[in-house]
């Protein structure tokens, strides 16, 4: 009986400690994803994630330039960036997954698109 009680106490203590770390990890991910990004393919589709919680996502290409939809985003400790943005009366929603220093998502007919950070000039 005492062994069971010790296991319950340990599970509660360590479980609470693990949850206390999650917001810090989400903040670390948020810090890591802030910046300008572009797809790693020939199209070089832009994406901008801002420190103030706003985001600019690609909406459509017009005369060789991208029209961006502006919105807001949230980040979880697992590295998932979830956003909602609007442009021209349309609302977009989606996600990016931060992993190994890059972002991955689905876009249009492609089920896997990789974004790389744009180097500051």
Automatic annotation (TrEMBL):
This is TIGR03066 family protein. The lineage of its organism: Bacteria, Pseudomonadati, Planctomycetota, Planctomycetia, Gemmatales.
